[in-house]
Amino acid sequence: MRIVIVGEDAARAAEFDQVLGDFGLDWVIEWLPEVTAVDGDMPAFDVFVCGLTPGPIGGPELLARVAALYPQAVRILLLDQNPDEASVDIAQGLESAHRVLGRPLDPVELVTAVESVVDLRELLDNEVLKRTLGRISSLPPPPRLYLQLTRLLRDPEASNAAIAQALSQDPAIAAKVLRLCNSAYFSGGREISDMRSAVIRLGHQALLRLVLTVEAFGGSGFGTGKLREQVQDRALRASNLARRLLPGPSAELAATASLLAEVGRLLPGVATAEAGDTAAAEGEEAPDFAEAGAYLLGLWGLPMPIVEAVAYQQRPGQMRSGGFWVTGAVHVATALVAGQEPDEAYLRAVGMLDKLPQWRELVEPSLLDDQAA
User: Fold this and answer.
1) Which residue from 83, 217, 303, 326 has the highest number of Cβ atoms inside 10 Å of its Cβ?
2) Structural domains in the chain, sorted by start
3) Average pLDDT for residues 25-52, to the nearest whole number?
């Protein structure tokens, strides 16, 4: 395995080589002071590591280029404990990175991060899962407007008017966004009747999640109406909760991942697999809804931290990488919203168990219960 580290202290090369030797790994690390271009002519590499400002090209842009030209490479973003860069740069870097590690880079953390991404790929490279999803005549399409808005919001000069105009290009989605905007999940006062007001009231990130909600749960034939309502209700509440469990830009990743955590339940042959139909009827163990959902999100091209959090939402302790971060927040949020107990052994291991009572108080009640009453 070949690792490229850009813009970091090459004087530490011997320290990293020693750790690789201790683990019995024959990985090769190349330390580059900077990278002026990323193109298809670069020598092949398996892992790419950089900070936010590794040289003439910013880290987020470097990682995005690596993602486009070397999609199989593990991409790692390094952040200082208190970065001076604008949060928009961090958010853009998070979108293209598989992992975020602190600076100065720790060699053991690097090994763990790389191996955990490899584990995730092996988890989703499941033949039963592929066959089950392959039986579906038409998988839900990628969230087109959400991805378009994500690209638009990467431009720091993007105006609220431009965002509202992009939203208004699809009247059906715009109408559903306005309806949700005025629902109890998001309502903050007077009724909103136009997209620009919705953009101003909600803010960009909440608006993105709203659009994603409409696109992810609005497809015809994508789960029954009642099941969609139940999953969407839990998704919105879990998203609101997860966002409060992590600080900074990571909060938005956790909110988005929680919003999509149960999307696999809506896939034909996966949502009802527990009842023993589809793959199970053929003598195969039916794929887990979390893995099926993560596989779908990978096909949609969503950021790897979101895909990983969805895949490991019910078993965060099985991840190689330690710490709480996005997967931990999704695990807690989805469990509490579903009325289940989070994994206390995992929370104790990552030093977050004492926060559980406080988190329980943040869970919002289901609106479906109010409607039924």
Assistant:
1) 326
2) 2-125 (3.40.50.2300), 129-372 (1.10.3210.10)
3) 89
